[in-house]
Design goal:
- Strands 2-8-7-6-5-3-4 form a seven-stranded mixed beta sheet, with helices on both faces. A three-stranded antiparallel beta sheet has the order 9-12-11, with helices on one face. The chain has a two-stranded parallel sheet with strand order 1-10.
- The relative contact order is 0.17.
- With 342 residues, the protein is of the alpha/beta class.
- It contains 14 helices and twelve strands.
- It binds ligand TLP.
- The site of ligand TLP has 15 residues, from helix 3.
Length: 342
């Protein structure tokens, strides 16, 4: 029995078209700016998110951390949601790599802070206070359940930050999931912010890589920081070529969202399991009513051939993606039911 892997949308394998594209890619030394495939990917990516320029980076984490470093000065504060990826899951990167202090706030179910929260969290520079250097937002919001944050909310938070002269970075690891779910162009979600990172290696299915996009001057400086962080790559066209194919497959994310809805619906019917209807491809099942920890739930699922990830004590994440079909999800539902009745 092959396991059905719902731990993350990062687990997809490259398609035949991607493998062919990698094999046939024209390459050059990208640190010299001479890899035509990377240059084409950066052009297409900038176009897709409506920015002047874009930079290909090895991972989403590196893209976010380059953005933090590029926007801030050592000693600044960064305002972010306490459940954001940049704060929770990137090893304290803002402190370690940029020497900035995080000011985590609870954005709650809105997923991005209200304008009032931004103004309240803002620290004006003085003899005793460092000053706020950045507001970081996330869309879709992973830990809060793949929530697709509507453009008005992003715009309101960004407007408040800009009113205080604070730039805004968007962690859009799953930006296109948000765009598809909200039925808006990705550029509408990025228009209010000063930089955006999105991943090619998640729902879009590329084997490697993310993109950091923004105005020309920002990307020029970000390119220096990428080199500093060890992310300057040479004949990177080999991995950028599948990324170009990934950019062609945005629309299919709707299938992952439909599959996630089916899964959440079925999980929510199980006794003592709560799984709210997801906006996108992330299903979060809470097993506290059942007295089952997430680790126990994950282990039971694993035994029955479904892989998931424990988020915290009672919340388990299931992520749909290109490599699980509708019938795989139906099969996963049967296996999870069995796992819980054994
Ligand atoms: N998230 C991973 C894990 O680290 C949790 C996953 O499987 O979802 N921003 C967001 C919102 C993310 O979810 C992730 C990856 C990143 C940034 C970092 O991307 P990578 O893994 O490419 O460094």
């Amino acid at each position: 029995m092959d396991a059905i892997d719902l731990r993350s949308d990062t687990v997809t394998r490259p398609t035949e078209r991607m493998r062919e594209a990698a094999r046939d890619a024209e390459v050059g030394d990208d640190v010299y700016g001479e890899d035509p495939t990377v240059n084409e990917l950066e052009r297409r990516a900038a176009e897709a998110v409506g920015t002047e320029a874009a930079l290909y980076v090895p991972s989403g984490t590196m893209g976010n951390q380059i953005a933090v470093r590029t926007h801030t000065e050592r000693g600044d504060e960064v305002i972010l949601d306490r459940e954001s990826h940049v704060y929770r899951w990137e090893l304290g990167g803002p402190a370690q790599l940029s020497g900035v202090q995080s000011r985590p706030i609870d954005a709650g179910e809105r997923c991005v802070p209200t304008p009032e929260q931004v103004r309240e969290a803002h620290v004006p520079e003085s003899l005793h206070r460092p000053g706020t250097g950045l507001l970081a937002l996330e869309n879709t919001h992973n830990y809060r359940g793949g929530v697709a944050v509507p453009p008005e909310r992003i715009a309101a938070a960004a407007e408040a930050a800009h009113g205080l002269d604070v730039p805004v970075h968007l962690d859009g690891a799953r930006l296109f999931n948000a765009a598809v779910a909200l039925d808006v162009p990705a550029s509408e979600l990025t228009a209010p912010v000063d930089s955006v990172m999105f991943c090619l290696s998640k729902g879009l299915g590329a084997p490697v890589g993310s993109v950091l996009a923004g105005p020309e001057a920002f990307v020029e400086e970000a390119r220096r920081v990428r080199k500093l962080f060890g992310g300057g790559m040479r004949q990177a066209g080999l991995i950028a070529a599948p990324g170009l194919k990934a950019l062609d497959s945005v629309d299919r994310l709707a299938e992952d969202h439909d599959n996630a809805a089916l899964l959440a619906d079925a999980l929510d019917e199980l006794a003592g399991v709560r799984a709210p209807e997801p906006d996108t491809n992330v299903v979060v099942a809470d097993t506290s009513e059942r007295g089952l920890t997430a680790e126990e739930f994950v282990a039971a699922c694993e035994d029955d051939g479904v892989r998931a990830g424990a988020f915290d004590e009672h919340r388990t994440r299931f992520c749909t993606h290109r490599d699980v079909s509708r019938s795989d999800v139906e099969e996963a539902i049967e296996r999870i039911r069995d796992a819980l009745t054994e």
